Amino acid sequence: MSTGKSRRKGKNKAGPEPEAEPSVSPVSYDSDAEFEEMQQTVEKSLSHDYLTWLRHVIRVQAEDVLKAHKEKSDSVISQLRKDIQTIEGKVVDMSNKMDDLQQNDMKQKRKIEQLQQENAKIRSRLRESQIKADAAEQHCYQKNLQVVGLPESKDHDDMKQFTKLTKEKLGVKIKASDIKQITRLGKRKDGGTPRNVLISFCDKATKEKICVNKKKLALNKDPKRNIYLNDHLTKHRQHLLYAARQLVKSKRLFAAWCQNGNVLVRKTESGKITQVSDHNDLMKIKDEDMDAKKSRSYHCKTEDDLLVI
Prior knowledge:
By secondary structure, this protein is an alpha+beta fold. The chain has 3 domains: 77-141; 143-232, L1 transposable element, RRM domain (Alpha-Beta Plaits); 234-309. Helices cover 55% and strands 11% of the residues. The protein has helices spanning 2-13, 32-140, 158-170, 204-212, 216-219, 235-249, 279-287; strands at residues 144-148, 179-184, 197-201, 228-231, 255-259, 262-266, 273-276. It has a 4-stranded antiparallel beta sheet with strand order 2-3-1-4. It has a 3-stranded antiparallel beta sheet with strand order 5-6-7, covered by helices on one side. Strand 5 (255-259) and strand 6 form a beta hairpin. The longest helix has 109 residues, at 32-140. It is rod-shaped, with a radius of gyration of 62 Å.
């Protein structure tokens, strides 16, 4: 009796017995058609779930790609906007600078025009001053006469030769007392052409008497030598007379000569006699009959400008 109780007590100490697994009864199909139909249903269910999952995965990946692309595009667009703002700022600066340059250019043009006007006035005043100075110098030479081709004698008595010349060739008697000074110009050259003789008379009337009759030298011309009587001219008038005679040679003027220290020209045979004071006057006379379309503004800078044909 006691032994049975102790065994029961021992069994109770070991814990509850494990529950038995539920038994699954196998599914039975009445026919193969039912099985195939069931199989197709399961496949469709699995295919639908897979497609749903695949769509979800693609959607998530596409969203990630689009998000990254959008962030990159936003960054690029932001940088482009900054660059455009920078460029616009530079364009505005350049536009302002261009406006400043245009204003400065207008100011410079006005200054240039003012300087040109002032320069024209200065050149006009300078020309007037040069003409006056030349006239004053020529006035000092009004009693002087230059003799070209008078032979140089061994005794160097030029006074005697000149008074003989005026008496025999011009029919004008002058005394030594009528001459203030007689001088050979330049250095003597052995066997060369005679040096010019500069004669200063005591009064202008004696010189004019000789000048009136100097054409007789052409009638009483010595075949062995040519002697000419010329006014004593300033260097400026010498160059001016030479330029005028060059224009006569090129048939741009009809005649050019000197009288009482003044340079005179005539454009045509029947044209009026005009006195010229400088090379600009000479060029105006030369070009005054040119056609308006062919005429050009010309300013003589040097005497050589007159010699250009």
